[in-house]
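The passage that follows is intended for readers who have already worked through the single-chain material. We present the inputs for a multi-component assembly, then the predicted structure in tokenized form, and finally a short commentary. You are encouraged to pause after the input and sketch how you expect the pieces to fit together before reading on.
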Amino acid sequence: MHLRKISSMSSLIFILSLTILLAGCTSFSKNAADSQKNEPVVETEFLMGTIVKISIYDEVEETDSIFRKAFERISDIEERMTINEENERSEIIELNNASGKDSVKVSRDTFYVLEKGKYFSELSNGKYDITIGPLVKLWNIGTDEARVPEETEIKNTLPLVNYEELVLDKEHLSAQLNVPGMIVDLGAIAKGYAADEAARILKEEGIKHAIVNIGGNIAVLNTRTDGTPWRLGLQDPLKPRGDYMGIVMLKDQTLVTSGTYERYFESNGKRYHHILNPETGYPEENSILSVSILTKDSIDADGLSTTVFLLGLEKGIELVEELPDTEAIFITTDKKVYVSSGIDEEIFQITRDEYQLAKSGVIK
Amino acid sequence: MKLKKGDLFIIVILVTAVLGWFLKDAIFPDDSSKNAVIKIDGQVYATIPLDKDNERQEIPLTLADNQYMRIVTEKDQIWVEKSTCPDEVCIKTGKISKPGQSIVCLPNKTVIHIEGAEDMDIDDLSV
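Having made your guess, compare it with the prediction:
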């Protein structure tokens, strides 16, 4: 009896210690996973009218100069391309001020972005228009002068929006707006270009694992340090910033989202968002809450996200399917999620149940 | 080493208890400790613990160019109650309380971000 008690006691202790050991093991492996995912060095600045965040995951001794170079480059691009009147170095303001008069010499940078802007305007037959500036100024969404314009104002402004009247001369690196009062607005693509340039600088500085985030436009370098893809949360368009509805996996790619929730104002109980339709002169009203573009260059993703938004669901997906290395994720007002053909569960996962993946058959 | 039914019963209970103790944290992560970090132009201005027992607390921010914001915390929530910014997107964002959420006021270069037992499932956010 006594002996058996001991043996059962010892077996009990044995099993208990085994359990504790096992439990210890799980917490140990958890720690190991944590240490593998090293903490990045993060710097944040307010540039281009938004928050710019750069996260470097490499273990480098000195990151200050790398951050400085990247932020200076972004700031330089902003100065050259802004239409904010406060800036005197802006080549775009110079171009706009010379509308109907002269052609203007621009830097290689600005020319490249103008070219891209015109390309997306052509690609969408003017659904996206790089000369949207007069309408943007009329609405002033995002400033304290935001208001709903009179119908006659919109009617009078619409003829000034026409990308075909923007003439680009590649040989002389010059640009001209043919009609007085025309305004080029690079707001829909300049951030993408800045993200590409910041990423390029990080690479030149030997950085291998980093994330450039310009107001939610993401460009990643390679993969996470452990070789797995980066995991980017996709903002839930109906929730506060930070609540995501899905996760997109990226490798040396870019992810740019355009949504109605980003910038807007309210007047008489109606919400007016910032994506203006160049044909009607009003914020585009279709079934899309947000569209995200996944591709190689951020300037393309940025330009395309606006273009595809304005094209609408069906024509937007059609365009994306024609472009190489380009995918799209749409969220519609009925909380359906539409994806282009190259997106599978290894690239995108919905994490919030209220969002449902629409059957591909719906898009025809 | 022959075990009686009763012994087995005790062992199972003990094992379950011990395992449960260790698994509890994994299944029900302790999200009670979280902080709201207020940053102005990239610099940390204040770190406020968000707790269910917190009384209402007002944080007035006097910013550059005569701009003003009033941030309020109560219980485990934080929100912007007043702001002189033109778009008031910060006020419209409403109350936030979950780690990972943030309120951004671009005109005032002010960000309120909740840090805590954060959802570490993502590396960054596409907005």
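Commentary: The mean pLDDT of chain B is 87. Residues 1-30 of chain B form one domain. How closely did your sketch match?
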